[in-house]
Description:
heterodimer, A: alpha/beta, six-stranded mixed β-sheet, globular, B: CATH 2.40.50, 3 domains, six-stranded mixed beta barrel, 16 helices, 20 strands, 21% strand
Amino acid sequence: MLEVRDVGYIYQGKYQSIEALKRVNCHFAAGKFYAVTGPSGSGKSTLLSLLAGLDLPTSGEILVEGCTMAAMDRDKYRREVASVVYQSFNLFPLLTALENVMYPMELLHVSKATAAETAKRLIGEIGLGEKTYQQFPVMMSGGEQQRVSIARALAAGGKIILADEPTGNLDSANEENIVKIMKNLAHEKGYLVIVITHNPNVCEQADAVYRMRDGELRT
Amino acid sequence: MGEFGNSIRQIRRTPLRSGLFLILIGLSAMLLTLGVVLYRTGEQNMKRVEEVFVTIGLVSQKPDRFETMEIWDAEKRDMNEFSSPVYDIMLPPEALLFEGADYIDPPVHRPYYGAYDPSFVYPDNTYIRLIAQTREHYPIVEVTPLEDCVPDHTVQLKILRELYGRNGIAGREIFGTETILFCDHYNADPQTLYAGKTYVMALEWRPSHQEWVDTHTGVDALAGEFFPRSMGSNYLISSQYSPNGEMIPDSMPMEYACEEVTEGFYDTPRGLRWLELAKAMDMAEHTIPVIPTDNTQFLISFYNGNSVIINGRDISPEEYKEGQIVCLISQEFAKMHGYEIGDTVPLSLYYADYRGSASQDFPPDGLPMGNPNHLLNAQGKSYEVFEAHDYTVVGIYNEINKASYSSGYDMAGYGVVIPAASVKNSVANNILDYGPMKGYNTVFRIPNGSVERYLERWGKYGVDAGISDKLEITIYDKGYTRIKEGLAQIKQVAFALFISGLLVTVLILLFFSNLFIGKQKKRTAIERSLGMDKRSCTVSLLSGVMAIVALGSTLGSAAGYALSGLAMGLLSELSQWVTFSTEYSNWANSVGNAEEMLPATGTEGLLIAFLCGSSVTLLALGISLVQIRSNLRSEPLKLLSTRDA
């Protein structure tokens, strides 16, 4: 589904350039739960950023279903294909849980009623009750917020979930739940789930683990 | 429109912050609008002041000394002393042409004209007839004494013939006879009058001697008596002047207005002069005063608002400049002849008087003061018409407040105002009288606001030229200097309001755009990561902020517009900036000069308010776009990867 071919990335700093990725090659298939791990500064987040279409590789290319990302409308790609889940949840603090989940659908011009109905279903599917609908992020626990952020990632209907340390701010119980949700999404609903993590427990649950070091990828 | 709705929703969910922003942006827009409206008001009023206000100077030559004259008073049997001014030389207006005077209109010594037309008849019930040498009080008659007498007391004369007069001369009406009382009142050594001889006399009426009243009973005692006009008031003597102010010697000195009539007397040059005088008196009775000027404001009665145009319009600057045949006429004159706007008035100008004031010779309330005493030229003839036009009436004026009749500054009764330039022909042979420059006949105009500079330069020049003690210059600016100062202060306040409004607006916008946009980098990053393109992110961030700014600036600018009138009034009241100073104007304020300083209202005020509101909105848009650009430059993943980002 996603293919990374000889991808390199150089951060052009003001005084120096940093080569964050060096000829990375890998392949991610739908219905699989991948973990990408490695020490800080190894290039994990850079790779995620490129997979999410937030930037383009300095060299090489990323193919989505065989099409090079460089030729794609990357905003559309993020709206309709790939969604990102963050360690710090990154929900809109002034919107309720329901509104946060509805947001990606509003960007796709889905009617308000349909968006609300879908959002409620998704919130239910990730194990949160109706009382959550009108809660603002600040009123929710970390685990609840992360579930809402996963529901928001699913809301657009894309089949790729990219997660950047999704369990980094969670206790072990919540961590377990989130990993479980992700695994289910991959194995039962056919999503491609790629998780950037330092957590060995998450790696253990993954179908495949990529290890990064100094911008290079090793299986 | 999802981004717009969400943006507004997020703004609504921070009511305190949004409310504070709304209030502050409203206040700053109000300050801005108030400042600009007041500034514009100051400018407009300054312009209006420049248009309306005219700074004029009146020139008056001071007498070099006063001479005491003794005149016999037959009733007192003693001399009366009179003091009269003496001018060694009469300074021309050119004496005031000095470097740096900067005249808009240099000083001109203007006459008033006498215009004759048989149709000009003063109503019987007005005192003004007295001034027009009416027949009752100023007759020219042939008389003979009832007995030989020396008229150093009241004597009786029998009227033989009237050269000028009518059946109703004052005494005759009362006596019911052809006898009048007579005394050569002001002559210490009157000539003997012989019964049986005929004398021609130019007479003037005066009240009866007390002695006569005491020794006689009945109305005849109060009928008054006549005396022969003599000395300065002797009609027979010419007072014709040359244009340079030199008196033209009379071809035939006739000191005494009483002569014996003998056979063939009226065929002699002296006799012919008496007949000519009668003719001139008849013309004077049908004469109205015509005041030539270059600007209606040069006539003090108009300048200080005592005279106002009640129908039609003023003579325009172009008409003045081009010497159009147009005129303003007094309400009394219009009523007398049924003149209306657009009618024409036949004005045959036949003399120019450079000494007197039209209002003194033709006083508006009819009390006789002076009059053209010398109606004959140096050849003993009546003056010929030198300019005649049918002037079109463009305006009718009324003198609503009258100054002292003796001031000479009032408008003359039954007067007509014409453009000076409409008189093309020379008056060189028609100068009936000539006197020194006086405030009512010599006016100049200088630029508004230049009073002090002018007076300073005049002070220096006048001393150097040795004429500073001979000329008195009085300048009137209707308080322009103070008003301009006040308006300048209002503009300064307005400018301060504008600058503070602008600064406050910028600071508020910087602060709140940082709060609503700059601090929302993470929100932008989330939106970007959700696939929102940059344009939508911009709309999302802008919508809420701009909604508040638009609302705040609209309300604020509307409030500023509404408050501008109040603020103007308050500023004016506090400082009395709009009241007219009397520093250079000692006239009482009246209708004409009570100009009110009005704020810029109506369409322009609304436009200013709209522009101020729009400017605030545009400024907010600019600042916000800069902030948004900065937001969009940040790498989303970096911002979203840590909790603290």
